[in-house]
Amino acid sequence: MLVTIAARDYAYENGTFFAAIDDQVAAVAEWLADPDLGDRAFTEEERRHLSPVNRREVYDFVAEHDLHELDLDDVLVLYVTGHGRRRPSGTHFLCVPDTDEERMLATAVRTSDLVAAVLDSEAEHVLVIVDSCGSGALDHELSGLVQDLSESRRRLRTLAVVTSAQFDQNPRIGEFARVLRTFRERLRTAAGIDRDLLTFDEFAAELAAAARHHGDVLTPVQVWPRPGHGSDPTPCLPNPAYRHWERLLEPAREQLAPPGAVTAGYWLDRASGRMSADDLGWYFTGRREPLTRLTGFLRDGTGVLVVTGGTGTGKSAVVSSVVMLSDPLFRDDERYVAAVESMPEAGLHDVAEGAVDVAVLARNKAAGRIAVEILAALDNRDRHSSATPTDVVSAIDELRGHLLARPGPVTVVVDGLDEAVHPTGVVVEVLGPLARLVRPDGARAVRLVVGVRSERPTPGHDSAPAALVELLRHVATAGGEAAPVVLRVDEEPGVTTDIVGYVTRLLLADGDSPYRGDPDAAARAAAVVAAHVTPSFLDARIAAAWLRDRPGIQDLDAPDWLATLADGTCGLLRDDLAVVAEHTGLSAERLLAVLRASAFALGSGLPWSDVWPAVSAAVMDIDVALLEDVWDVGAYIETIRNSRLNGYLVADVEDERIVYRPSHERLAEVLRDDPRSLLRGGDDD
């Protein structure tokens, strides 16, 4: 139930005041009754409103709608606004039009009476917002009043009272409406909370951040409970930014992450070669030879297959293709069935349903977590469950039991081994034991596919990822087993042809592109791109996005453009930084600092909120305490998210927050280790 009590018709006020009160009520309804919230919205039938003239009307209203007798499953948001007074005793009163300020006890409404009525009901989800002068006086009043609640009520983390100001502060009319609208906008941008409902702690934190954004408004106060005690999501606080992730994969291939989050998006991005999360196209073509070898291994092979290649050469695309196409849920998705069927030459039809049992992404994970995720996926359990082991030894012991109990070999895919925390530990503690596990009949219990980046060794330069491949070969054969099969995707004779086909499809895809409807021009441009970037599909994707963003067909003989292509990802990012800085008037160095901050993220990425700005400040050597005075980092983040620079980032979800990271580990390495190479001369601040 959404209840609003708004005292407005004071004889001494005018139409401007009346309109402002109405707008405050409207701001609350815009959020909580928004039809876009779906079944989380308060419907018209659930809304109650009162504009009282006298004190009795308020108490009669409470009684008429049984606000003090709410049931266990009722949800209530009560918004109270109008003139308020704090009396010498510390009591806060809501003044109604008929209030005599010389007789407040008899003619005004004791605000704590309203609060007490709803807090002491049976409803387990209650939010009271008091928006009036001196409303923070409720802090003192409630400290005693809540002691009269039952212990079970006091322990609930889904009851809260918020005031628009401290006890000695007088918010200007309309202030709270401004803060509330900015709060809603923050939820869609900086807050990045990926959950359908908020907690009261999140509500208080985001209201405070919204108030700071304005600078000239008072900060709302959560007077009860104290911050830190409202940690449970509540239907009182629907998140307008939440969008339901459509499940693309079954849980065993999603690492039990939220649908569309960590792994589903990862596998799809790389399998399809799409340019953004909103793109439903499937652009990778060719790769017939590596796909044929990989699908053959999944069908008949034993032991370990290592899929490897240099940076951006499509290693993960090949692995991800079979992960996606083996998944029954994905195979039934009509959007992708049509896309895959349009490319019979890729050999994707050879992937059998269920060919991959478990798929895990190793990026920024230690051996223990990877082992636990494999176990949780096989056993269909939550990896955070108390029944799930937390250390690698216990997880491997349990895994052995599950794997040996299965009738046939279990196919496990682990991609991004080189991006794990201590990759050698993952090889020795997890992959080696799995690779050597033998069933009582002598057959291998696990068929293992490992994706790992390894540059081609050159004289005088060792490759750490290449050493990982050798270590994996060693531990997998420690018991006399056959050596792993190594599949290099950057040695195939058709790589250049595959990149030409990939870029051509991207240039001709739906949307704004000067090549749309001109396949000959697209093919010519794709051939030039492939000649300069092979074997890097990463460079090819970025170059295609750059060409699509041009106002017209690119001059293929332009020396500057050819030089940029020859410089690969670094050259393309350098040009994009300069163009965005020029068009927006923002500093290229600070745009780079924001991108660079994301490259230092652990886990799945960096949340926006207060974290991304703080890390960006550290990159620029700016005192975080002074940040708001010297740099609007939010404007830079927003510019990146809404410009061509967004193509260098990928959004993900971790711990129910949207996070951001570079779209490829090669980009992250350049941003961390060689940022000056990404600035044109004269781009520094």
UniProtKB/TrEMBL annotation:
UniProt xrefs under Gene3D superfamilies: P-loop containing nucleotide triphosphate hydrolases
InterPro entries referenced in this protein's UniProt entry, alphabetically: AAA_16 (IPR041664), P-loop_NTPase (IPR027417)
Pfam families: AAA_16
Span of domain Orc1-like AAA ATPase: 284-424
Protein name as catalogued: Orc1-like AAA ATPase domain-containing protein
Organism expressing this protein natively: Actinophytocola oryzae
